[in-house]
Amino acid sequence: MNRERGVAQCLMLDVDGVAVTGHPEDGRSWAADIEQDLGIDPHRLQDVFFAPCWGDIVLGRKNLMDALRACLPTLSASVTPEEFLEYWFSRDARLNEAVIGACDVLRRRGWRIFFATNQEHLRARYLMERLGLGRHVDGMIYSARIGAKKPEGAFFKAAARISGAAPEKLILVDDSESNVAAARQAGWAAHHWTDGDDLLMLLQDRKTG
Fold this sequence. Notes:
This protein is of the alpha/beta class. It has helices at residues 34-38, 42-57, 64-71, 81-91, 97-108, 121-130, 143-146, 153-163, 177-185, 199-205, and strands at residues 10-13, 112-117, 139-142, 170-174, 189-192.
Protein backbone atom coordinates (compact mmCIF):
# COMPACT_ATOMS: atom_id res chain seq x y z
CA MET A 1 0.00 0.00 0.00
CA ASN A 2 1.37 3.41 -0.97
CA ARG A 3 1.66 4.90 2.52
CA GLU A 4 4.46 5.86 4.88
CA ARG A 5 3.73 6.37 8.60
CA GLY A 6 0.33 7.83 7.80
CA VAL A 7 1.59 10.91 5.98
CA ALA A 8 0.14 12.34 2.78
CA GLN A 9 1.56 10.68 -0.29
CA CYS A 10 1.37 13.44 -2.90
CA LEU A 11 3.83 16.26 -2.31
CA MET A 12 3.33 19.67 -3.89
CA LEU A 13 6.67 21.45 -3.74
CA ASP A 14 7.33 25.13 -4.29
CA VAL A 15 10.16 26.05 -6.65
CA ASP A 16 11.66 29.47 -5.92
CA GLY A 17 12.88 29.65 -2.35
CA VAL A 18 12.65 25.90 -1.82
CA ALA A 19 13.99 23.84 -4.75
CA VAL A 20 15.71 26.78 -6.49
CA THR A 21 17.46 29.42 -4.41
CA GLY A 22 18.73 32.25 -6.59
CA HIS A 23 22.10 32.83 -8.23
CA PRO A 24 24.09 29.61 -8.74
CA GLU A 25 27.23 31.06 -7.17
CA ASP A 26 25.95 32.78 -4.06
CA GLY A 27 22.15 32.67 -3.90
CA ARG A 28 21.72 36.38 -4.58
CA SER A 29 18.95 37.76 -6.77
CA TRP A 30 19.41 37.01 -10.45
CA ALA A 31 19.22 40.77 -11.11
CA ALA A 32 21.85 41.80 -8.54
CA ASP A 33 24.41 42.70 -11.24
CA ILE A 34 22.07 43.48 -14.12
CA GLU A 35 23.00 47.16 -14.32
CA GLN A 36 26.70 46.34 -14.48
CA ASP A 37 26.25 43.43 -16.89
CA LEU A 38 23.47 44.62 -19.20
CA GLY A 39 23.18 48.34 -18.50
CA ILE A 40 19.61 47.93 -17.24
CA ASP A 41 18.55 49.84 -14.14
CA PRO A 42 16.79 47.24 -11.94
CA HIS A 43 14.35 49.84 -10.59
CA ARG A 44 13.30 50.84 -14.10
CA LEU A 45 13.02 47.16 -15.01
CA GLN A 46 10.54 46.78 -12.18
CA ASP A 47 8.59 49.87 -13.22
CA VAL A 48 8.57 49.24 -16.97
CA PHE A 49 8.34 45.45 -17.15
CA PHE A 50 7.50 43.60 -13.97
CA ALA A 51 4.93 45.94 -12.40
CA PRO A 52 2.74 46.41 -15.51
CA CYS A 53 3.30 43.08 -17.27
CA TRP A 54 4.18 40.26 -14.91
CA GLY A 55 0.74 39.71 -13.44
CA ASP A 56 -0.66 38.82 -16.86
CA ILE A 57 2.44 36.90 -17.94
CA VAL A 58 2.47 34.59 -14.92
CA LEU A 59 -1.20 33.78 -15.52
CA GLY A 60 -0.61 32.95 -19.18
CA ARG A 61 -2.57 35.97 -20.44
CA LYS A 62 0.40 37.76 -22.00
CA ASN A 63 3.34 36.37 -23.96
CA LEU A 64 6.67 36.91 -22.21
CA MET A 65 8.66 37.43 -25.41
CA ASP A 66 6.16 39.95 -26.76
CA ALA A 67 6.31 41.90 -23.51
CA LEU A 68 10.10 41.97 -23.58
CA ARG A 69 10.17 43.13 -27.19
CA ALA A 70 7.99 46.05 -26.17
CA CYS A 71 9.79 46.89 -22.91
CA LEU A 72 13.50 46.42 -23.59
CA PRO A 73 13.84 49.40 -25.99
CA THR A 74 12.24 51.61 -23.33
CA LEU A 75 15.00 50.48 -20.97
CA SER A 76 17.68 51.37 -23.55
CA ALA A 77 18.78 47.75 -23.40
CA SER A 78 21.20 46.50 -26.04
CA VAL A 79 20.28 42.84 -25.52
CA THR A 80 17.65 40.89 -27.40
CA PRO A 81 14.72 39.29 -25.56
CA GLU A 82 16.41 35.91 -26.04
CA GLU A 83 19.67 37.16 -24.50
CA PHE A 84 17.79 38.77 -21.64
CA LEU A 85 16.00 35.52 -20.81
CA GLU A 86 19.20 33.49 -20.96
CA TYR A 87 20.79 35.96 -18.54
CA TRP A 88 17.79 35.82 -16.22
CA PHE A 89 17.12 32.09 -16.24
CA SER A 90 20.76 31.04 -15.93
CA ARG A 91 21.25 33.33 -12.92
CA ASP A 92 18.10 32.17 -11.15
CA ALA A 93 19.12 28.54 -11.17
CA ARG A 94 20.79 27.50 -7.92
CA LEU A 95 19.45 24.06 -7.11
CA ASN A 96 18.87 23.03 -3.52
CA GLU A 97 20.60 19.69 -3.90
CA ALA A 98 19.35 18.43 -0.53
CA VAL A 99 15.74 19.01 -1.60
CA ILE A 100 16.30 17.45 -5.02
CA GLY A 101 17.96 14.43 -3.42
CA ALA A 102 15.07 14.10 -0.98
CA CYS A 103 12.65 14.06 -3.92
CA ASP A 104 14.50 11.08 -5.37
CA VAL A 105 14.32 9.25 -2.05
CA LEU A 106 10.62 9.98 -1.62
CA ARG A 107 9.74 8.80 -5.10
CA ARG A 108 11.57 5.53 -4.48
CA ARG A 109 9.35 5.15 -1.40
CA GLY A 110 6.23 5.57 -3.50
CA TRP A 111 5.51 9.27 -3.19
CA ARG A 112 4.25 11.29 -6.14
CA ILE A 113 5.80 14.74 -6.35
CA PHE A 114 4.77 17.80 -8.33
CA PHE A 115 6.22 21.27 -8.39
CA ALA A 116 3.41 23.71 -7.56
CA THR A 117 4.63 27.12 -8.61
CA ASN A 118 3.83 30.54 -9.97
CA GLN A 119 5.73 30.45 -13.28
CA GLU A 120 5.32 31.42 -16.90
CA HIS A 121 5.77 28.93 -19.73
CA LEU A 122 9.37 29.55 -20.81
CA ARG A 123 10.94 29.41 -17.37
CA ALA A 124 8.84 26.39 -16.48
CA ARG A 125 10.32 24.61 -19.49
CA TYR A 126 13.81 25.84 -18.62
CA LEU A 127 13.54 24.50 -15.09
CA MET A 128 12.21 21.12 -16.11
CA GLU A 129 14.39 20.55 -19.18
CA ARG A 130 17.55 22.68 -19.07
CA LEU A 131 18.06 22.37 -15.32
CA GLY A 132 16.83 18.78 -15.37
CA LEU A 133 14.28 19.11 -12.59
CA GLY A 134 11.85 17.01 -14.58
CA ARG A 135 13.95 13.93 -13.79
CA HIS A 136 13.18 14.27 -10.09
CA VAL A 137 9.42 14.84 -10.01
CA ASP A 138 6.23 13.62 -11.65
CA GLY A 139 5.43 16.98 -13.18
CA MET A 140 5.05 20.71 -12.72
CA ILE A 141 1.75 22.45 -12.04
CA TYR A 142 2.25 26.13 -12.72
CA SER A 143 0.18 29.28 -12.88
CA ALA A 144 0.47 30.12 -16.59
CA ARG A 145 -0.64 26.60 -17.45
CA ILE A 146 -3.80 26.66 -15.35
CA GLY A 147 -4.66 30.36 -15.38
CA ALA A 148 -4.54 30.75 -11.60
CA LYS A 149 -1.77 31.43 -9.12
CA LYS A 150 -1.02 30.74 -5.50
CA PRO A 151 -2.57 31.66 -3.10
CA GLU A 152 -5.82 31.68 -5.12
CA GLY A 153 -8.17 28.84 -4.31
CA ALA A 154 -8.50 28.05 -8.01
CA PHE A 155 -4.81 27.11 -8.11
CA PHE A 156 -5.20 24.48 -5.41
CA LYS A 157 -8.38 23.11 -6.94
CA ALA A 158 -6.67 22.72 -10.32
CA ALA A 159 -3.55 21.20 -8.76
CA ALA A 160 -5.60 18.57 -6.95
CA ARG A 161 -7.45 17.75 -10.16
CA ILE A 162 -4.26 17.42 -12.20
CA SER A 163 -2.57 15.26 -9.57
CA GLY A 164 -5.61 13.03 -9.19
CA ALA A 165 -5.13 13.07 -5.41
CA ALA A 166 -7.80 13.84 -2.85
CA PRO A 167 -7.11 17.02 -0.84
CA GLU A 168 -6.46 15.02 2.33
CA LYS A 169 -3.64 13.17 0.53
CA LEU A 170 -1.86 16.37 -0.53
CA ILE A 171 0.83 18.33 1.28
CA LEU A 172 2.32 21.64 0.17
CA VAL A 173 5.82 22.70 1.15
CA ASP A 174 6.23 26.40 0.39
CA ASP A 175 8.21 29.37 1.71
CA SER A 176 5.18 31.70 1.57
CA GLU A 177 2.96 31.78 4.64
CA SER A 178 0.00 32.98 2.57
CA ASN A 179 0.36 30.00 0.23
CA VAL A 180 0.55 27.63 3.18
CA ALA A 181 -2.59 29.15 4.69
CA ALA A 182 -4.43 28.85 1.36
CA ALA A 183 -3.42 25.20 1.00
CA ARG A 184 -4.80 24.43 4.44
CA GLN A 185 -8.00 26.27 3.53
CA ALA A 186 -8.27 23.91 0.54
CA GLY A 187 -8.05 20.90 2.86
CA TRP A 188 -4.39 20.11 2.25
CA ALA A 189 -1.66 19.61 4.79
CA ALA A 190 1.04 22.26 4.46
CA HIS A 191 4.43 23.22 5.85
CA HIS A 192 6.01 26.67 5.84
CA TRP A 193 9.54 26.13 4.56
CA THR A 194 12.45 28.02 6.09
CA ASP A 195 16.17 27.84 5.37
CA GLY A 196 17.71 24.83 7.03
CA ASP A 197 14.60 22.65 6.93
CA ASP A 198 15.08 18.97 6.09
CA LEU A 199 12.42 17.77 3.66
CA LEU A 200 12.66 14.10 4.60
CA MET A 201 12.47 14.82 8.31
CA LEU A 202 9.52 17.16 8.11
CA LEU A 203 7.52 14.69 6.02
CA GLN A 204 8.49 11.77 8.24
CA ASP A 205 7.28 13.62 11.32
CA ARG A 206 4.01 14.88 9.84
CA LYS A 207 0.90 12.81 10.51
CA THR A 208 -2.34 13.00 8.63
CA GLY A 209 -5.41 14.36 10.36
